[in-house]
Structures are given as structure tokens and as C-alpha cells.
Specification:
With 507 residues, this protein is α/β, with parallel strands linked by helices. The chain has 2 domains: 277 residues, P-loop containing nucleotide triphosphate hydrolases (Rossmann fold), CATH 3.40.50; 208 residues, 2-Layer Sandwich (Nucleotidyltransferase, domain 5). Helices cover 38% and strands 19% of the residues. It has an 8-stranded mixed beta sheet with strand order 3-4-5-2-6-7-1-8, sandwiched between helices. Strands 9-17-14-13-12-15-16 form a 7-stranded mixed beta sheet, with helices on both faces. A two-stranded antiparallel sheet has the order 10-11. α2 crosses α4, α4 packs across α5 and α14 crosses α16. The longest helix is centred in the last third of the chain and has 21 residues.
């Protein structure tokens, strides 16, 4: 019975008028840390968070580009501000994995230890773990968990969900999206106490992510949505307004100090799909047109000279300082009607432009596959590097031909097929990747095999040409970008603002 009375008293105290030392989480953050940068976007987030705690059963979704301070404000400063206002609040902080959420719990705990006098708060010595701690003399505290993790049996007054999706690969997985939704409905929402509040802070990856499902649910109207696009894209002629009062096309004032030129570079590098989702907060359904049929750059004359023996050479290749020629292979052994295809491609790179010069795509046996690589090597003698995916059947090919063909490089794939294709898609959109015009360049009718497969990707029945294409262009375009990167990720990222770094910086 005493437990019930304690709970009733704690609940009653939540509605008692309190004097707030700082009007907003941002004001508190600036008082505790003079390095805090306050932007118009963070002002707007502050207003929304203050409104949330003043509204019983409040629901809030905050979407903003990565690395602009939303996680620091929403998952660190806001819970601390809320506890300073009401030290009896029981707060749960969650993220895509327990370790990320635990870091926020530790940061808030450490802030209290550092600013005990200013805050008038202290943490119980006997309950002070990173993942779970309680305020001395009060019911309030913080508990952390990852998506799918268990929450304690006691009610939660404030649930903060920060980036339930880690990256593009998870976002594009129906399994991960369903996992996040089930966890919200069965774990988080079920633990919210009477008058409990919930806030979801995220970078949008997919239209069917947790934010999309919450908005589309039967009670979706209960959620207030604050979406701050990196670039104002409203249409005044239709009565639309920008949340920051910007003119159409104006970029946001960046907490990271990004200039207009830097925003423009991010927009071009990201590609339309990633820019729309991560930076504008408006993900569109994936309709399978990652590579539209008419979206490829074309070249209309042979870039090679064919010699009498049937081999082809690039005359200027050895004189160009920034050019290379490679083969890229995707192997399978079965040559039945139902099996995948063996695909071999030849790619030329000149600076930041690549050109598909040749392709073979057939169902082949093991011996036929080996012979196809010998033939391609004889046909393109200048292609020093031969890229072979080092998984499935690739190692057997490498072992069989290593003593016959020089320059065979085993490539360890990173991420899913889809994530690798997404990584190179901005180069297609930017017209950096060129295919032969099958009408103008004789003997290149095979190019339709790639364009058709790519247009159907990832929902098509075959993706072998896309695998070979993405493998080659990773090597030719992304690896040089990665090698030139000098950014320290820890210095530029807001801890908790997750982004798929593997492609964002060129991996």
C-alpha cells in the first residue's frame, strides 16, 4: 500500500506549480556551457519541448538534418532541464542501440555532478549507474535502453526516443521498421504513466519509419510534428510557410557553422533521395527507381582503338595522370535457367568521370567463368586491376586464376547490395557515370542489360550487373574520396545524430 501512496504523491507533485530557473532547455545549456550555440532551429525546438512538458499526454516529433544539435538538445539538455523543473520525473531515454542511449544517461548524470549547486540536484550514491540512476531525495531519474530492449516495470513520465534507426540499411529493412514499431507499441507506449509525455527525435530515413507510422496511425493527430528542412522548400503561392520564416531556397543557420557553399555541396553529394529524407525530412516511398532508365549520362563515340588481334586500347591512358582502367566481376557457378548471371564489366576513370566500356552477362559454369575472365583480360590488356567480390564463389575463381592472370583483387563487400548501390547513386544523378549510347556506339546493345536491371533494382529478379557496377565505382570514385578525407568524425558529429558515415564521407 505504501508503494501506491508513494506513486500517488509523485504523480500529484507533477502538477504542483514550480519556479523554473531557466525558461527553456537552451537557456540552461548556455548557462552551464558557454560554448553552446543557439540557432533559430534550436529556439523552435526549445519552444516545442517547453510546450510538451506543459501538456499532459503530450506527443512531439522533431525532425532536422544530422549534426545540427537536435540530439544534444533533446536527449541531454531537455531531460536535465525537465528534472531541474520537476525532480520527480521518471525519464526513459532510448535509441537504436543501448550504448548510444547509455551515453546520454551518463552525460546527464555527469552534468548534475558538475553543476550540483546551480541545479540543486544530486544523484543517489547507491543508484548511479550509467544506464539507470535516481535523484537523491526524489522519485525522478533516468533509465536508458536500446530499441527492442526491456524497460523497467515502473511507469515512465517522459519517454525520449532518439534515432530509433541507425542507418539506411536498417531503414530500408521491413524487419527493422516493424521491430521499431512493435517495440514502441508493446514496450514504450505501454510504460507511459498517466499524463506521460513522449518525444521522438530523429533524422528521417524512410517514409515508413517510426515517425511515419506514428503520424499515419489512428491517433496520429495527437502528435505535434516539428520538421525543420535544411533548405526552405515551401511554396508561398499555395499558402505554405517555413518554420524558420526563411525565403524559399534559403539554407538553415547551422549550429555547425556550415556555409551556403557547404550546404550546396552536401545537397549535390547526397543525391535527391538522401537529401529529401535526411536533410529535408520528407522521405518519399521507394518505388524502385533509384536508377531511372533515362537518368544516365551517355557517350556517343568509342573511347578505345581496336587492334588487329581484337584487343582494345585507350591510346591516352598511359599519358593521363588521373586515369585508370579496371575490370569488375560478379561470379556465380550454376548455369541453370534459374541461376544468377555471371557479369564482367570494364570501366575507365578519367578524373571524377567513369565510363562503362564493355560487359559480358551470361549464365556460366565454373570453367566458362574462368574463360570469360581470360577473354576479357586479352580484350582489354590495359585493365591492370581485376575486382572480384571475395564472398560466395569469388574465392574459388581467385584461386583458380591467380597464377594465370595478374592484378586480381579480392574485394570485401561492405554493407548490403542496396546500401552499396545507394552509395554510388549520387554519381549517376550528377552525371559522373557514363554509359555508351547503344545507337551511336556500335556493338554496345548489351548496355540495356544494366539499365533495365538498375531500373528494377532492388525489386527485380536479378541484380548482377548492378553489383558489378557498384563494385567498380566504389573503387574508382568513393575510395579516392575516402582517402582524401581528413575529417575527424567525432569532432563533427553530435553524439546521437546518426548518419550512414560509410558513404557520407566516402567509404
Amino acid at each position: 500500500m505504501s508503494v501506491d501512496l508513494d506513486w500517488l504523491e509523485a504523480t500529484a507533485r507533477q502538477f504542483e506549480p514550480r519556479v523554473r530557473r531557466w525558461a527553456t532547455p537552451g537557456q540552461m545549456a548556455q548557462a552551464l556551457d558557454h560554448r553552446t550555440v543557439q540557432t533559430g532551429a534550436l529556439d523552435l525546438i526549445d519552444q516545442a519541448l517547453v510546450g510538451l512538458v506543459n501538456l499532459p499526454d503530450g506527443r512531439l516529433i522533431i525532425s532536422m538534418p544530422p549534426q545540427e544539435g537536435k540530439s544534444q538538445r533533446g536527449s541531454r539538455r531537455f531531460p536535465l532541464w525537465a528534472l531541474e523543473t520537476n525532480p520527480d520525473l521518471r525519464i526513459a531515454i532510448t535509441s537504436y542501440e543501448a550504448g548510444v542511449a547509455r551515453r546520454w544517461g551518463r552525460a546527464i548524470r555527469d552534468d548534475i555532478a558538475l553543476h550540483t549547486e546551480e541545479l540543486g540536484l544530486s544523484v543517489r550514491e547507491d543508484l548511479s549507474a550509467q544506464h539507470e540512476w535516481q535523484l537523491d531525495g526524489h522519485e525522478g531519474g533516468v533509465y536508458t535502453a536500446g530499441v527492442g530492449g526491456a524497460l523497467t516495470g515502473r511507469p515512465v513520465d517522459l519517454a525520449v526516443i532518439d534515432d530509433p534507426i541507425k542507418d539506411r540499411e536498417q531503414a530500408d529493412s521491413p524487419v527493422y521498421r516493424e521491430r521499431g514499431w512493435k517495440w514502441w507499441t508493446e514496450a514504450v507506449a505501454a510504460r507511459l504513466a498517466a499524463c506521460g509525455r513522449g518525444v521522438l527525435i530523429l533524422t528521417r530515413w524512410h517514409h515508413d519509419d517510426l515517425a511515419g507510422r506514428l503520424i499515419g496511425a489512428e491517433d496520429g493527430h495527437l502528435w505535434r510534428v516539428i520538421n525543420i528542412p535544411g533548405q526552405a522548400d515551401h511554396r508561398p503561392e499555395k499558402g505554405e510557410t517555413d518554420p524558420l520564416g526563411r525565403a524559399p531556397g534559403e539554407f538553415m543557420d547551422s549550429a555547425r557553422g556550415r556555409s551556403t557553399a557547404q550546404w550546396e555541396a552536401i545537397r549535390v553529394r547526397s543525391g535527391s533521395r538522401t537529401w529529401a529524407s535526411l536533410y529535408q525530412g520528407r522521405p518519399t516511398p521507394d518505388t524502385g527507381n533509384l536508377f531511372p532508365r533515362d537518368g544516365w549520362a551517355r557517350y556517343d563515340r568509342p573511347l578505345w582503338v581496336e587492334r588487329a588481334d581484337g584487343s582494345r586500347v585507350i591510346p591516352e591512358l598511359n599519358t593521363e595522370l588521373d586515369a585508370e582502367l579496371v575490370q569488375s566481376w560478379d561470379f556465380t557457378f550454376k548455369d541453370t535457367k534459374a541461376s544468377d548471371y555471371v557479369v564482367g564489366q570494364v570501366w575507365l576513370r578519367r578524373g571524377v568521370q567513369t565510363f562503362l566500356l564493355d560487359q559480358v552477362r551470361r549464365r556460366m559454369s565454373f570453367s566458362d567463368s574462368c574463360q570469360a575472365m581470360r577473354d576479357m583480360t586479352a580484350r582489354w590488356p590495359q585493365a591492370a586491376a581485376k575486382l572480384v567480390e571475395d564472398k560466395a564463389n569469388g574465392p574459388a575463381i581467385i584461386n583458380a586464376l591467380a597464377s594465370q592472370i595478374g592484378g586480381i583483387i579480392a574485394v570485401e563487400p561492405e554493407g548490403s547490395k542496396y546500401s552499396r548501390a545507394v552509395a554510388v547513386s549520387p554519381f549517376v544523378e550528377a552525371q559522373n557515370i557514363h554509359l555508351p549510347d547503344p545507337v551511336a556506339v556500335e556493338g554496345c546493345a548489351w548496355v540495356s542489360e544494366l539499365t533495365e536491371e538498375a531500373a528494377d533494382f532492388p525489386g527485380g529478379s536479378h541484380d548482377d550487373t548492378v553489383d558489378a557496377f557498384s563494385q567498380a565505382n566504389h573503387r574508382l570514385l568513393l575510395v579516392p574520396m575516402r582517402d582524401e578525407s581528413v575529417h575527424d568524425v567525432e569532432d563533427i558529429m553530435d553524439e546521437g545524430d546518426t548518419v550512414e558515415l560509410s558513404w557520407a564521407i566516402g567509404y
